[in-house]
Amino acid sequence: MTEPSPDHAAPAQTQQHAHDFFLARQPILNREQELIGYELLFRNAAFGPANVNDDVSATASVIAHASELGLNNVIGSLHGFINVDATVLMSDFINFLPSDKVVLEILETVKVTPELVKRVTELSRAGYVFALDDVIAESEDIAQLLPLVKIIKIDVMELDASKLLKLSMHFKRAQKMLLAEKVETVEQFRDCVTFGFDYFQGYYFAKPVILQGKKLEASKIVIMHILTLLVRNVDNGEVVRYIKRDVALSLTLLRLVNTPVYGFMKHIDSLGQALIVLGRRQLKRWLQILLFANTEKDKAHSLSPLLILAATRGKMLELITERIRPGRRKMSEIAFTVGIMSLVDALFGMRMEAILTQITVSSEIRDALLFRTGYYGEILQLAEWTEKADKTATEMNDLLTGLQLSPEDFYDLETQAFEWGNNISTNMGHAPAKKAEEADASKVSE
Judging by DSSP bridges, how do beta strands 151-155 and 177-181 pair with one another? Predict the structure, then answer.
């Protein structure tokens, strides 16, 4: 990495502590709805309501403190998409970002000059990949940068179907990869697939698609029953007997218990031994996560964004509780469960109210899941805000103040939860998943 030179140091307003910001991480999916990267959105905690200038200042601060950021902890083996303006692009400290791990998104507010074109050309030759952000029309500035960028991000919320099709055809003729941003419904996703988009960013995949008469998959029913057995505190033998009814589940649990996460010296080769080694608390946790695993044969090894989101939410709520309610193990376990359960409506394609009529939960868990109220509702809301781009620093600060959690502490917990979620996906993956992931990575980097 090249050290930033004094002549190209970060602007004065960016010389702040690297933790004086909130980090939002938005998933980016491919046409198969598999995870290929994240857009990293930095909300500056020191400036009050977030706006573009403040966010880019926060981004610059992150780049200047790259050693503290721990990019691998945040995005794992995937790509990170990061907003940059002219000031960031013209500064040498952008070299702190690894060219093979990031996509630099040039903001729509950037004025294209000969100097900027020259700088983007230099960085492209150095291996950096560029995208144009928030494109809604053709323009002279876009035409100047088009030969230098790989990806065009189109704001689907700002365009009707006919204009979206026309714009996508224009950029496809220029042989650019298309990324649809602000995709909020499955219908929007399907339209964009039809129009030839390659990547998709938005919250549509985590919203329930209500299908009347939908039945749960057999494997999900088995997992739900095992979780019920654990709540009833039946003996290990009965739990093992039920797990054995699902061969795929048995093999998955054995694979998980033999991953480096646990570091056991001896190979665990039986379900009974695995249950003893794991303990019921950890088994319950794995089963909750496995609910979100893809079970379709053609997707069994794909990187499920819903699984990673659920696992990350659960871990983040647990870590927050451990930090602000130390020593209360029962509360941290409930917090993990709330995080996982907050996405079961999307998983099962049922309304949360209907699901909670079939599952017995405490009133505090119910209030958190339905109304985002109470302690667990507040921390769930905080975790959800790290997934979205439309929350301001003021809103985040108010919630953190109420929980007596500093931005610096929260950033630390965020990165721990992101890393844990990334590890879960790695431990549950197989070679086919890695090959698909590498193929998408090569498309982005080429």
Answer: parallel
Could you give the C-alpha distances from 76 to 80, 373, 424, in angstroms and in order?
A: 9, 32, 11
The DSSP element (H or E) to which 362 belongs, if any, is: none
The DSSP symbol for 137 reads: S
Helix (H, G, I), strand (E, B), or coil: what is residue 292? coil
The full set of domains in the chain, from first to last, is 6-205 (3.20.20.450), 218-427 (1.10.3210)
CA distance 128 to 101: 9
- The answer to whether residues 249 and 270 touch, using CB atoms and an 8 Å cutoff, is no
pLDDT tens track, the chain, 446 positions:
333 443 444 433 434 444 566 788 899 999 999 999 999 887 666 544 444 445 565 666 666 554 455 788 888 889 999 989 898 899 887 888 889 999 999 998 899 999 999 999 999 999 999 999 999 999 999 999 999 999 999 999 999 999 999 999 999 999 999 999 999 999 999 999 999 999 999 989 998 887 665 555 667 777 877 887 887 788 888 888 888 877 777 877 777 777 655 555 567 778 887 788 778 888 888 888 888 876 555 555 567 899 899 999 999 999 999 999 999 888 998 999 899 999 999 988 888 998 888 777 889 999 999 999 999 999 999 999 888 766 666 778 888 999 999 988 998 899 899 988 888 777 665 433 444 455 566 667 66
Q: How far, in whole angstroms, is CA 245 from its chain's centroid?
A: 33
DSSP 8-state code for residue 413: H
Expressed in angstroms, the distance from the first to the final Cα of the chain is 21
